Amino acid sequence: MIELADYVKLDLQALGATRFQEHLTRLRPFDVRIIAEKVESEAEFRWCRKLGCQLFQGYYLRRPEVLSGRRIPANRLSVISLLRECANLESSAGTIAATIARNAPLTYGLLRLANSALYRRRSEIRSPAQAVMMLGIDFVSRWATLLVLAGNDDCPAGYLEAALHRARMAELMDPSFHCSAQEAYITGLLSTLDFVFNEPLAALVEPLPIDIRFKHALLQREGALGAVLDCVLAYEAADSTSEHLRKTYWEAAEYARNMVSQMTSAARS
After folding, report:
1. Which domains does the chain have, with CATH numbers?
2. CA angle 150, 53, 233 (to 5 degrees)
């Protein structure tokens, strides 16, 4: 049967280190990709990757051990304020630009991105207002998303892409939920803060300067945004077999990969 398979999943916790290696050795002659399942620590992740595993599943990748006493850094709070403005349908480009202009690091970062090799122009972009008009509110929102999540040294590999994946999947949900795509995106993003910062979600969300609707959606699953998040989480937990959700899931996965790649290239330029 292995000759017919494209993937083979090995349960690290059930097999133990010795048997896991034995199974890998037996599978090497076959043209299959190995999925290491139930990877629960950084050490296990690195060990499996060193052995040649190509794909991974486990709490290490999506549900880390909770540590108390952590808080979102102050610089990220200012970015979350920017995300809130981007999600507000009544916010204008001018309002968003003014929010950025009040923060020197945000201003510097946005101007650097707007003038990067990805967006070559004849004249230099010199103000947040020009940058927002050129890039668009939707792009600025996604840029702020990466600022919230990136640069956290304690955040294991893959968390950034996973967070973008969930945010995009929420954004692509059926319009029958009666909420804006931008608001759904922000909700999906904020729902990942617990595994990004290793802190219970409630402790992170309560003090945030965001609309109360987001807090109700994130903590009580209330309202249209709460329903969207419930649906996304149900599919992640394999509690839904919807064909629409399946297509949305893989479209969001492709978006997350491309977004990380694009933003990383911009940051290096």
Report:
1. 2-62 (3.40.50.720), 74-268 (no CATH)
2. 50
